[in-house]
Amino acid sequence: MSAEKLQILITGATGQWLHFYTHASTNVEVSLAGYIGGTVLQLLLEHPKRDTFEITAFLRSAEKAKKLEMFGVHTALGSLDDVDKLEDLASKANVILNIADCDHFAGNTAILRGLKKRHEKTGEVPILIHTSGTGVLTDDAKGDKVTDTIYYDSNPEQIESLPDTQIHRNVDLEVVAADKAGYARTYIILPGVVYGLASGKLVDAGIMNRRSMLGPLLVKAGLSRGQGGVIGEGKNLWPAVEVNETADLFLVVFNAALAHSEHPTPHGREGYFFGENGEYPAIDLCRAIANALYELGKGKSPEPTPFTDEEAMKYFGGYILGSNSRARGKRSRAWGWKPTKTPADLMASMRPEVEGFIADQAGK
């Protein structure tokens, strides 16, 4: 690695896994396959200071590694279970964009150990931009009620009031603790429901997936049961954010973090950034999917029907899709993030999502 260039390590650029830990005996695992991370990497490759960066992607696929190297990206093969390798890579980085599984405690803490090792060896305070999600805000509404509680990323005391048992929270706390200890400067980005078809050269090269998580998850369930569904009455609210605007938020935080010496920025407990631009009731999204399935001859009715308890466990590992997650990205906007896509764009994106998912299944 070149000592003169800024050493950037990115995880989750080609494959990201989210887990729904919603029941002691059930774990639903969903692949985002580099959906967010790949979109962020594309922006890094187009960054005005790209010539001053040396980017290393940590990934599992040797085939995708070869393709990435054609774009001038260094690669290291491994998974988040390879904690020694991950710790070593982290110890060599000035900046880490961690966009992999935010619930993999061993892998995430290996990154932190690597950053600590770098600090102890060089005195440098490296930067960590960690990806969490607004799932940390969820409740147990089961689709039947709306909560009045809205969380603001500009209110650290409110975020600190969250129970340690919330999903993602155990890793988020470790990240903030690393900042407090002084061996890393940390920022946590928490997107809501990310949607839209990703595009760009990494998609064209077959390196990253172009489809979101939630849409295909609901579509798959609808196809399996022959009818679009909803948790409870679908009254619960979630924030939405388009995939390219999500990546824009990462770049806003990245650029601000690099300019910290000239323009100091809050970090650690004050370094939370919600990715959202409006919220929607779950019934609206479920209705858009049910209607698309119906029009394509894959559903019995354009109106979603309630998932049974058994179906909720089977398809989602519980009731997380019936929870409320209400967030406001006040700090994100204060730093210059300017999203324009709204939940109306989310609803409009569902027909292409359904068509694409059905086409993918037919091609297998």
UniProtKB/TrEMBL annotation:
<dbReference type="GO" id="GO:0004029">
    <property type="term" value="F:aldehyde dehydrogenase (NAD+) activity"/>
</dbReference>
<dbReference type="InterPro" id="IPR051783">
    <property type="entry name" value="NAD(P)-dependent_oxidoreduct"/>
</dbReference>
<dbReference type="InterPro" id="IPR036291">
    <property type="entry name" value="NAD(P)-bd_dom_sf"/>
</dbReference>
<dbReference type="GO" id="GO:0005737">
    <property type="term" value="C:cytoplasm"/>
</dbReference>
<protein>
    <recommendedName>
        <fullName>NmrA-like domain-containing protein</fullName>
    </recommendedName>
</protein>
